[in-house]
Structures are given as C-alpha cells and as structure tokens.
C-alpha cells in the first residue's frame, strides 16, 4: 500500500465527453514545440522495469473460465496485468494512464465475459476521498491491448479498506451486454451496452458514507449474488423482479462482512467467506459457509475458528466439492490456505506441507533465514484447467504451485513498488540503489534480476525515508527508514552490506526522515519528519553516527542536500517560506540566502548538480524550474519549463560537458519525462503515450556512466529505466 501522491489530492476530475480510445502508439515524431528555450521533441526510448518482483498487494486474480492459461491480476495502486501461461509472465495493461489520471492506477475490480474471451473490463479508482477524482471503467475487446474508457460520476477505492474483497464488477450471466458494478458508497450501477454507459440500478440496501457498500458480485448459474458490508442482510441475490435477501443466511455471530464468494457449478453450491471487517487489516473473527442453491440449505463449513478472518475463496471448476479458502490476519500462527475435497466437511492446511522457494525474489525472506507463507491473503484462485495450479496473493507477492507442495512467486513481469529514492553510483558493481515503500533499500547489481541480497539488512527496515551517497567517496552510503531495530545505517562498500549507526537521536524511531552525507562522507545530517508531516529538529554527526547533536538553525522538516564538491557545504529548502538555507561549516549552522521563492508545498525539491559547487536546481511543480549557480544566494527561473516535479542528472553527452538533465515536468504541454543535453535550453520527451505510469513526481535520476539512461520512480509501477532506442 502507498499513500496518495503528495500534493495531488485535488487534481483529478472525471474526464468529460464520450469514451475514447486511450492506448495510443508511441511518439515517433516531434511533439509540439514551445519555441526557443524549452523546445521539446520526442526521442524514442525503450522502457523496462528494474526487476524486484511483486513488492505490493495483489488484491485479485481472475482466471478466464473458457481459455486455458489466460488470467488477470489487479493491484491496489499499480494497475492490472494479463498472465501468459506460455511465458509464465505478466504483461502490464494500464501503463498508458497518464499524470492527470494517477487516481486510476488502482484497480477496484475486473470482469471477463465467459462467452467472449477477448473482452475484459476494469473498474478503476484508487481513492474514494473528496480530494480524489471519480472512477472510470475501461473496456477492451483484445484482452487489454487497447482500451475504451467510460468515466463514472462516482468514486471507487482500490487502495482503501475492503480492496481485497471479491470482484465488484460482473458480466451478467444472462446477457453479455449487461454489466453490474457494485460501489462502496453509491449503490449498484448497471450498463446495458457492454460498459459504454452507466446508470444507478435499483438495489434494496442503502450504503453509508463510511461503510463498504457492495463487497462483491458473483454469478451462480443465471443468478447474481451480491455481498453487502454495511449491516443488515449480508447477502442478496437477483430474482425475476429485482433483488432479495438470501433466505436462511447466517445470523448472529456469523453475520459479518461477506468477503468472497465462489460457485461450484458441479455441486451447485455457493461458498461464502466472512470476517468481522472487510480487511485486509483489523480482522479478528471469521467463518466460511456453504449454500445449497437448490435446496436453500446453509451449512457452516468453517475450517478453524480463532482471532482472525477469512478472505480469499476459490472452487475447482473440474472437481466438484473441491474448495480452497484463505485465513487473514492470523498473525500468531501465520496465515494459511485450507483445502477441502468434500465440500467443506474436512480441511487440510496447505501451509503445513508447503515448501517455499523464493530464489527469484530473495527479498521475501525479509532479512531472515526463510520466507513466510504470507499475510493479507485475499486474492486466491484455482486454475480451471489445472486443479493443482493454485495462486494466492499477499501484501508483497503472488505465490503459485503446480503440485500443492512446492510454492514459488509467480510474479515475473509484475512490479508494484512505490519508489522514494534512487541513486546511480559513479562506480562500483551496482548501477542502481533504490529506497522503496514497505520493502526498504535494494542494491541492484543487475537490473534484470531481483537483487540476490534481498532487502538491505542490519537492520532490516520497512519504508525507506532517506538514502544518500558521498559524492567524493562513493563507497560510503547511508540510509534511513521505518524499522523495529534501528532507523539508520551506513555502508562502506557502496551499499552491498550495512551496519546500523551506533546511536540515533530518540526522535528517529517515531519520525525517521531524509538524511545526507557530506561529499567526503565525514558529516551526516539527519532531518526528522513524522508521518503526518510534522518536522522535528535535525541532528548532525561527525563520527559516523556514534554521537549526534541538534542543529537548531536547520529548517524543520526540510530535506538536507550535500554539495557534491565542497564537504563543508550543505543546503536545505524551507518549502513553507520559500527560503534557501546554506551551511559552510559542515552543517553545524545554517543561514538564509535566497528568499521569496515558491512556497507552500512540502514536495518542492532541491537538487545539486554533480561535479560543481553551488549549482542548485529547484523543482517547484507548477511554478516551474529554478536555478542558482552561486550556492543559493540568487535563483532564476528556467525559461521554457512550465512545470518541474522531480529532477536528476546523468552522464554528459560529451566529455567534460554539463551533465544530462532528466525531469518529470512540462514545457507547454502535458507532464511527461524529459531530457536535456544542453543545460536546460532545450528538452526532448523520452517517454510516450503508452508508457506514462500515472504519478511519477517523486524521484528521477540518470546514470553517470551511461549517457541517456534514466531511472524513474513510480507510485505503484516500480522502478522504470529507459535507454535510447
């Protein structure tokens, strides 16, 4: 899970007009030119993921019932994917969604048409909060290669509580042109024209502003069942005249939120998993029930009771009575999958005999000797053409088996990390070191394989808050982040191995923030920021973290930036006042320099050009790009750059020339990925309309050893790296 892109909460509004084809070909001709400084042309690039493997919450997996080897996966912030069984890999389907559509990278639900295998539908919308835009439905007639889009008048919540429940989108089993969409706060929507237009449909239950509304839609023969998470009757179904509460459904302690449902067509049984909360968090009780849809008889088939809920649920299409269900929030005993071959009369825990192989994604060991079976297990599916091919999602990966014993990540091609920091070292074995949400720091010796050392250990941290390298001593790297056994660490071998700081300020455990190291690696500056944005006094160390002293003159909450040439110089930008602060005594004290600069947004960023003293660049989002060549005493706005959200540097086009500039920004057109080889006088667009990845305003950097290569951080599609085609 990632937080919404900072500063983007009020940007997206539902697009107006008719649905349009949105998967466009790559740019191969010059784009609109701004004229003079800032003129932009297009340069063809090849884009790929720096491989980590998964890293995010897989919220749903859907096998097509009529096509062998075809499946789809949805994620909470990283879009949707199509599985190819022949290559054992996933293909991303929503990378074409651009900057203004960042809220559509969360997939609330998926649907396939059993009678028309080429058709695929996605319901998109990451947040249902007032600051987020409305949702949309994408429809494809070529399995997601191209799309047409219909904007909705309601909001969806793919990264909110309940995101791991069943599919809220369904093709009506009686009519392929009819689709149903269950929403969280706006009842039931219906389309009678294969997803082109949508309108409210009668539904007997009324959603609340804070509840879950409809948690899933499932077909059982020609009947549609709906889960309901706002109290009252938890399960409803269609009749000849409308909807009704299903008679005899579990009452009393078992009447909880219905999380998933699966229909066994061979035995005509509907299975439903329940929990006392929609999940994936805060579940402490749950159950599983079976409905005989012919007789109307309900049976409690709960495998085991305890302080946890039940989540994912799937039936074997080729073997009647075979069903698999997942526990959720079973922390002490660790979550498991229970499998039954007799309709729920007896169960076997698959975890108990499981052999996990995470060779392909070693970070899943979480710094320990062996991986865990999983948590947040709400996505679960049995391949309808292979009874022993089962997949289940966790908060970080998708495990699969072909024999019910050996399990391995089935994640190739699927990358969902939220990227916070990127360093491309000027020397050494690694071309990339990354700081990520949830899974800490990665050391990439190869971009095409998950780092063999996994998460940076000693200590293991969760979300990274800071990552810095000494410009004149690149073997020295420091990092900070959220962790239970220390919040800061250093490396003397370029990030390959780590050791914790000998000490840390007391505030570090509750507000770890960004940090910097002087050019020679002898001084550390650590800024502290609480998760709610509250800044605390920064601290300084001159003995590699053995002791720390407060720096009262450092602006609270600011990000420290080291001068890449002069070890005595540091910089900090006070985004609240629009003031640049500088230190010339190795961070012991800071004084104000330029003032009256863009202010009011904590995501404004300062970057220092490599190999130069006092050459600073300020990315001020929609207030443009600004530059100082005198250590922050004066800034001037860069002509021809309308917006700048993140900026970094790479190898110069010519020996001794100015470093290549890369940014997520805009000249006079939309926000895109840009490169300049002439000190920002002109720019070229290096991504295309098929490669946009939603919000990309956190971090970007070039490679100091390979001209033209760029590394781009996304908020849910991992690390993208591009090379000139």
UniProtKB/TrEMBL annotation:
<dbReference type="InterPro" id="IPR006311">
    <property type="entry name" value="TAT_signal"/>
</dbReference>
<dbReference type="InterPro" id="IPR052025">
    <property type="entry name" value="Xyloglucanase_GH74"/>
</dbReference>
<dbReference type="InterPro" id="IPR015943">
    <property type="entry name" value="WD40/YVTN_repeat-like_dom_sf"/>
</dbReference>
<comment type="similarity">
    <text>Belongs to the glycosyl hydrolase 74 family.</text>
</comment>
<dbReference type="GO" id="GO:0016798">
    <property type="term" value="F:hydrolase activity, acting on glycosyl bonds"/>
</dbReference>
<protein>
    <submittedName>
        <fullName>1,4-beta-glucanase</fullName>
    </submittedName>
</protein>
<feature type="signal peptide">
    <location>
        <begin position="1"/>
        <end position="33"/>
    </location>
</feature>
<dbReference type="GO" id="GO:0010411">
    <property type="term" value="P:xyloglucan metabolic process"/>
</dbReference>
<dbReference type="GO" id="GO:0000272">
    <property type="term" value="P:polysaccharide catabolic process"/>
</dbReference>
<keyword id="KW-0119">Carbohydrate metabolism</keyword>
<keyword id="KW-0378">Hydrolase</keyword>
<keyword id="KW-0732">Signal</keyword>
<keyword id="KW-0624">Polysaccharide degradation</keyword>
<keyword id="KW-0326">Glycosidase</keyword>
């Amino acid at each position: 899970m990632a937080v919404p892109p900072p500063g983007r909460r009020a940007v997206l509004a539902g697009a107006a007009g008719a649905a349009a084809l949105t998967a466009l070909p790559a740019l191969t001709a010059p784009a609109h030119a701004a004229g003079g400084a800032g003129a932009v042309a297009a340069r063809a690039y090849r884009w790929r993921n720096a491989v980590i493997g998964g890293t995010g919450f897989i919220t749903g997996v859907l096998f097509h019932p009529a096509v062998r080897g075809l499946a789809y996966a949805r994620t909470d912030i990283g879009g949707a994917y199509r599985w190819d069984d022949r290559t054992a890999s996933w293909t991303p389907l929503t990378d074409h969604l651009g900057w203004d559509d960042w809220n559509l990278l969360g997939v609330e639900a998926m649907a396939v048409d059993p009678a028309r295998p080429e058709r695929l539908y996605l319901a998109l919308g990451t947040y249902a909060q007032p600051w987020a835009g409305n949702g949309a439905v994408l429809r494809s007639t070529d399995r997601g290669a191209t799309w047409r889009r219909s904007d909705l008048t309601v909001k969806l919540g793919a990264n909110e509580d309940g995101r791991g429940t069943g599919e809220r989108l369904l093709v009506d089993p009686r009519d392929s042109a009819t689709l149903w969409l269950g929403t969280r706060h706006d009842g039931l929507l219906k389309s009678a024209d294969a997803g082109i237009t949508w309108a409210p449909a009668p539904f007997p239950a009324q959603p609340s502003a804070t509840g879950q509304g409809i948690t899933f839609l499932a077909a059982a023969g020609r009947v549609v069942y709906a889960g309901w998470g706002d109290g009252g009757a938890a399960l409803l179904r269609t009749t000849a005249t409308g909807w009704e509460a299903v008679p005899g459904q579990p009452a009393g302690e078992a009447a909880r939120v219905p999380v998933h449902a699966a229909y066994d067509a061979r035995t005509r049984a509907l299975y439903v998993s329940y929990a006392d909360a929609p999940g994936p968090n805060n579940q402490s009780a749950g159950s599983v029930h079976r409905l005989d849809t012919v007789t109307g008889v309900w049976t409690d088939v709960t495998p085991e009771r305890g302080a946890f809920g039940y989540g994912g649920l799937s039936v074997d299409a080729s073997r009647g009575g075979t069903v698999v269900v997942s526990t959720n929030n079973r922390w002490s005993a660790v979550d498991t999958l229970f499998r039954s071959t007799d309709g729920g009369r007896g169960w076997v825990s698959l975890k108990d005999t499981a052999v996990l192989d995470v060779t392909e994604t070693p970070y899943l060991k979480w710094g320990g000797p062996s991986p865990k079976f999983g948590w947040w297990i709400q996505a679960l599916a049995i391949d309808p053409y292979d009874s022993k091919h089962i997949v289940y999602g966790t908060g970080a990966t998708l495990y699969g088996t072909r024999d019910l014993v050996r399990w391995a990540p089935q994640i190739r091609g699927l990358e969902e990390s939220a990227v916070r920091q990127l360093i491309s070292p000027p020397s050494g074995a690694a071309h990339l070191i990354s700081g990520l949400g949830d899974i800490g720091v990665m050391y990439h010796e190869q971009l095409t394989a998950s780092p063999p050392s996994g998460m940076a250990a000693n200590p293991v941290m969760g979300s990274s808050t800071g990552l810095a390298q000494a410009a004149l001593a690149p073997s020295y790297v420091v990092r900070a982040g959220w962790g239970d056994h220390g919040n800061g660490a250093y490396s003397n071998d370029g990030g390959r191995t780590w050791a914790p700081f000998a000490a840390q300020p007391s505030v570090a455990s509750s507000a770890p923030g960004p940090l910097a190291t002087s050019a020679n690696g002898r001084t550390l500056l650590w800024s502290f920021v609480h998760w709610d944005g509250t800044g605390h006094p920064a601290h300084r160390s001159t003995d590699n973290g053995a002791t720390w002293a407060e720096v009262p003159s450092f602006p609270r909450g600011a990000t420290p930036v080291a001068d890449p040439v002069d070890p005595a110089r540091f910089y900090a930008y006070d985004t609240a006042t629009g003031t640049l602060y500088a230190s010339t005594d190795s961070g012991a004290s800071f004084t104000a320099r330029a003032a009256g600069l863009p202010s009011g947004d904590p995501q404004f960023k300062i970057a220092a050009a490599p190999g130069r003293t006092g050459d600073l660049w300020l990315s001020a989002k929609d207030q443009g790009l600004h530059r100082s060549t005198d250590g922050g005493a004066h800034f001037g706005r860069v002509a021809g750059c309308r917006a700048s959200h993140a900026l970094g540097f790479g190898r110069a086009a010519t020996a001794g020339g100015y470093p290549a500039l890369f940014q997520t920004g805009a000249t006079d057109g939309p926000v895109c990925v840009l490169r300049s080889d002439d000190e920002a006088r002109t720019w070229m667009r290096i991504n295309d309309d098929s490669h946009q990845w939603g919000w990309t305003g956190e971090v970007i950097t070039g490679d100091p050893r390979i001209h033209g290569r760029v590394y781009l951080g996304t908020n849910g599609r991992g690390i993208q790296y591009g090379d000139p085609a």
